[in-house]
Amino acid sequence: MMNLATAAVHARGLTVRRGDHPVLRGLDFSVPSGRITGLLGPSGCGKSTLMRTLVGTQAHVTGALEVLGKPGGDPALRSRIGYVTQAPSVYDDLTVEQNLDYFAAVLDPGRRRRAARRETVAAAIADVDLGSHAGSLAGRLSGGQRSRVSLAVALLGTPELLVLDEPTVGLDPVLRRDLWDLFHRIAVERAATILISSHVMDEAERCHRLLLMRQGEILADDTPEALCARTRTDTVEAAFLHLVDEANAAQESHR
Fold first, then answer.
1. Residue 107: pLDDT band by 50, 70, 90 thresholds?
2. Geometric angle at alpha carbon 34, from 46 and 31, rounded to 5°
């Protein structure tokens, strides 16, 4: 059982409705601080909606949500959370460095000296291993490199919580591996909490903890090892399928 006092995110009865349709159905879960938690499930199960809820951009939210010790959506959380959407949020006609400098200026209400901002930008570029591409136009980068630029933007404010919505989608296995190595390095070096969504089950093995979703519900909230032990399976994918079968059987028995 997770110590809730050390949880970066704690939700109880978290619900989101779209009209009469429930997108998230009374979710109860926690995200441990300083660890990588994987949010896994098939496309359309509610992962992106949940992530928008955590960063405070989702409407029609009910239930209890605490993020970094504050109520979900609290304005004080804006500078403490880094959010990377599925589509890279960079300008193709600007270089990597120009993109970072622009976003650093937007994020800096105090208008620090340009020299200080350059140091922040250089540190973010170094964090994502794009130093050799700092002068390259974003539109000419590979998919994996563009994902790194978006991640660098999210790192500008030294966030305590990073929320990454399917950052490896469409990438080849080598680029996916390199990005996951980067996520682990950031978690260690920055002592950051990272929540990563994916519908690729083999990425679950790279996480410290997992939230498995299906049809707007949490099927499991546990470590990969505990999930496999509980379901007597060898992989998280097999454990997920086992839990889906259990849920289907329970639904059938109540009809």
1. confident
2. 30
Residues 6+ apart with CB under 8 A from 82: 154, 155, 156, 157, 159, 161, 162, 163
In one-letter notation, the amino acid at residue 248 is N
First CA to last CA distance, the chain: 32
Asked if residues 155 and 128 have their Cβ atoms less than 8 Å apart, the reply is yes
**What's the CA gap between 192 and 162, in Å, rounded?**
7
pLDDT of 20 strictly over 90: no
d(CA 190, CA 127): 10
d(CA 221, CA 213): 9
- So what's the pLDDT on residue 247? 83
Q: Which residues contact 16 (CB under 8 A, 6 or more apart)?
A: 22, 23, 24, 46, 49, 50, 53, 58, 60, 61, 62
Q: What is the dihedral of CA 66, 71, 72, 76, to 10 degrees?
A: -120
pTM of the model: 0.88
Gap between the Cα atoms of 169 and 203, Å rounded: 11
Pair type for strands 161-165 and 193-198:
parallel
CB atoms within 10 A of CB 133: 20
